[in-house]
Amino acid sequence: MSRLSPCSRMFAAAVVALPVLALPIRSHAQAPAPVTERLVTVYAGGFGQVWERRPLAPARGSRDIALDGISHGAVAESLRLAGDGGPLTVRSLTLSRNLLTPHALLERFLGREIGVVKVHPTTGEERIETATVLSIQNGVVLRMGGRIETGLPGRLVFPDDLGELSARPRLTAAIDAAPSVSGLTLTYLTEGLGWQADYAATLSPDGKRLSLAGWASVANDTGVDLDAGRLRLVAGQVNRVGGAQPLAKAPRPMMAEAARAGAADAGLPQREAQGAVHVYTLAGPVRLMTGERMQVALLGPVEVPVTETLIAPGHPPVFGPERGESVPEHPELRLSFANRSLVAGGLPLPAGALRVYRTGGDGVPLFAGAGRLSDIPDGETAEITLGRVFDVTVRREQTAFKRLDAQGRNVEAAFRIEVKNGRDAPVALRLDETLPGDWTIVTKSRDFERKGGQARWILDVPAKGSAAVTYSVRILR
After folding, report:
1. Which of 45, 208, 280, 304 has the most CB atoms at less than 10 Å from its CB?
2. How many angstroms separate the CA atoms of 269 and 248, rounded?
3. Could you state, in order of their start, the residue ranges of all structural domains in the chain?
4. CA–CA gap between residue 218 and residue 233 (Å, rounded)
5. 315-345 pLDDT per residue, tens
6. Which pTM value belongs to this model?
């Protein structure tokens, strides 16, 4: 059995292995009842907005109230408090972040006496020695028994005196409220909330259709659990002061009423355009546990016509003779689809990762590649690169080069591009040659299309065969 000396018993109230403790309300502060309604809005930029209602006991005159359960990442300057049912004047708002941690507890008792629990190695008997905390910089320094000790020579115990330390941030408000005020409405911004869109798609066996589903991954790193009667996700750009990063570009406006009707039919979040942003409101209450990642459905699945394109982008060496032998490259496989009325009223696709799967002969999906979508407004085209094609190669070779002036600013170069197809079926491949400066194609073996700074050829390559294109280009600078 453990024995404690009389001196030891005074320290037996608390230990460093701390339970979750709440700061007691001071006698002059009135604590409202728990939250009765909460709406959480999450932005993709890593922050959020909390709106909540709490009842307030009627009273006359000035008083202080304390509100618990505030996010650890609450932005103090954004705190707003209003009354329900009558006028309310807020004289001051104080957000305390004196959180209860072992380090904070040691800091509070710096220069004061605490207890150190020592355990006998054979009998297991515990005894508590008195120690004075001398320093907590880069470790703990104690004076005990006429000697100085560093580190933690045993389990530490403290007198039951937490002062202003609290397990969670606490908001204290000095208010003047009319007797008719029956509740409080609190609104604030907070760090630690965020969401992103993720898409999963399965290609049909012929590669012509895509079954597309969208999810929102919501993260809560605020340090508190948030029971939300409603959860809203915002896609778009809103500016913040203090150097915060803006969100992705806002999608184009959409037909809100039709979109809401479609969401109700499918049990998906309601979508609505509000100013420059789009808001997705989930149906029903949601519990966001701190440290949790939750996924909610945003889209589908919906069937979408899709196009696969083999693309060989190139940057030919036009300002000097090519040295060494060219190395064959494998073209990229690009996947594209038109975002045209995927659901009734249209659906802007928020930026996010798109993972694509193919179904093989055994019927089991096989991961085929992934890419990142930018914001895709309704009516625009989405495109990602899945990877590189294994059995198709592209070899570029410079066949001629000459300078047109002594400085070498104006040049002319010629190239041959050969494409080999190892497949059992013919393929169409797009060659995109990026050319600098003021360029002109002087000679060519096939017609091309000019797309900005690129010369584009489409080659049809037979099965187990090859195709080539030659051209010369003049560059003026």
Report:
1. 280
2. 20
3. 6-19+101-158, 47-99+166-191, 307-351+374-476
4. 9
5. 999 999 988 888 999 999 999 999 886 776 6
6. 0.69
